[in-house]
Amino acid sequence: AMDFLVQMFCNLIEHAEWTMPQACSDAYSKTLKKWHGWVASTTFT
Fold it and tell me: What region holds the Glycolipid transfer protein domain (predicted)?
């Protein structure tokens, strides 16, 4: 979960034009997606 937060904040810094949902979606796909099954992953797409 900490990796997700770090990636989300990095996204917001590096991509100032991104919305929060964009930053979260990218962070999720890079950090947590591999650990969640299909049901959980559809919540974030």
Answer: 1-44
